[in-house]
Please model this.
Amino acid sequence: MRGLVININPVALKIGHFALSWYSIIIVAAIIAAVVVALREGKRKGISSEIIYSLIPWVLIGGFLGARLFHVIDWWQYYAANPLQIFEVWQGGLAIWGALAGGALAAIIYSRVKHISFGLLADTAVPALLVAQIIGRFACIIDGDATGVATGLPWGFTYINPGSMVPHNLFGVPTQPYPVYDQLWNLVGLALALSLRRYFKRDGLLFLSYLSFYAVGRFILTFVRHENIWFWGLQEAQVVAIAVLVVSAAIMIYLYRRPKVDITPETLT
Model:
């Protein structure tokens, strides 16, 4: 059998009717790692740990709802026929763009309530977000819920476990290891963010740079991913990536032209 064979059962532990999935374990690990990184980054920026801890529930709830919503929209034809599975989040199916959108909206609301610069909070979150994305993709590798297209490359992933979420037509077929490509892109992004953060003097610029960088990578890498086509041959993630890149670039230009203006919730509304 060609490619790197993945025969990992997505269910790590099952006791009676209780099933603990690798997806859940890895996502929790990604969240814990993100919190640790955010606390360290917050300390570097003069943000108290109390603020970080109080922000976390907002971002987690908003990010979780957004991530699931984007995924369900992308696969609406399937979930419309199986509505109860919308709530089976432990089986996988969280969209990163949705997590970013929901988390950002929650952070904007939090910043208004607490009268804290949204740009400062967003910049603090960048390294944490990248670390979480890198770790979180291991869940996709095991589950097969971010499958690449068929490939003849020797490093393709071949899923043979019946519990995997790989589409039926790609079961047992070598596919592009899209999650690994995404991890490598985010690793480069993390290195750039840690290097550039000292040079940005305005709140929010690091976050906008992160969005732009990830949007470019997501647009390109999604060409080797197996997902639903929306229009013009583009998938949901690519359409969102174009929109994010345009908006982020426009706000960055605005800030550079008016250097005394920092990003606040009012800037984005």
In short: The chain has one domain: 4-257. Helices lie at 22-45, 49-74, 76-81, 96-114, 118-143, 178-196, 205-221, 236-257.
